[in-house]
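Example 3.2
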Amino acid sequence: MKEYIAPWEQAFERILTPIEEFIHRQTTSGILLMLCAVTALVLANSQWAEGYHYFLKTYISIGVGEWKLSMSLHHWINDGLMALFFFVVGLELKRELLVGELSNLKAAMLPIVAAIGGMVVPALIYFSLNPTGDRADGWGIPMATDIAFALGVLALLGNRVPKVLLGFLVALAIVDDLGAVLVIAIFYTEQLNFTALIAAGAVLLLLASLNLGGVRKPLPYVLLGLLLWFATLKSGVHATLAGVFLAFIIPIRPKYEPERFLRRANELLKEIGENFRAEPNIIKNYKMRAKVRALETGIHRVQAPAQVLEHNMHIPTAYFIIPIFALANAGVPIEWSELGNTITNPVSMGVVSGLVLGKLLGIAGFVWLALKVGIGVLPAQLNMKHIIGVSLLGGIGFTMSIFIAELGFANSPEDLLMAKTGILFASLIAGVSGYLWLLLNSKKPAPTAN
């Protein structure tokens, strides 16, 4: 096959290919997230702290005529951009429940039990230290796990850990995300506006009718999704949940079944070959161009819309939305002279104890109990040392924990500061201890023969 290579093309490919490979590595998004968190911390504890916080409080408005929606930049990030993050979370949940790790209940039982333990025990530990008053509202903070950070740390270990451990962590984190979504929807919902809630329900019904009617074009879902987000924002239910609701309605079935696509693709390739023999120049050969376009259409139609959206949204979410969230929310002013008081504060103690100790006892403890009573089976390549390592990594709360802290302590800046400080310390402790545990308790891969 003749290949047309422009003079600069190979040079650009040599430059861009390593960059593209770096972007698609599992560790990269975690590294970027860490850099943004550190940047936010530096800004919040520097001479630019006032400007940093002032910038986040800047109001941004969008409007048409007399109608206007006005929110601070901080709220646009937490209520707007994060709705897209939750949309991707919803797509992942839907895929895992229908065809992924969680579609087979028997195989999924162990990560489900582990995730439940990893949510219940941390919440109980936090609540035991903050049983009354407004501080009790933070019980949901240590329930969460930051999958990007946890997978990034696990990926740093390379071949030292079995690949099945990564699958176990992903399945656990998916259930954990589902739990976090339910907690936000049920326990962190403000006073409800029933008119807006009814409007959101009507939009959901309209979206469902599009799905049932076989509409697979993304534009109608995008437009109605914006309406759903606005109605949810005004309803009192947290606006980010609109992303999850929309994700569960995006069609999961492709227009073409694979058998039909293969049959049609073979026919088209045969016709393209015949057209090529008649006229090899595709610019002159309109019949061949038409067949190539038909093949391209078939390629699009054999892919499920939900699958395509999840793939397309991965890079914007991992490399833009989550880093921006970290920049806006991880800026915690640290008074080193008051560090002792910060560490002993009930909120920060509850968060650190819940994330570090609670995740370890909850995940590893529930897995051990499940195996003892015969609920689920540990994959052949895994042992309890691996589960303990994953339990420690589960204490990296960061993104979702900060998000829940923003909801739970929206009216208590001091408690929010303590919660964020606790999240940062706990995530650091959990990440380092999880990495070192797995490093010391995993076999070094045998060198490959040349």
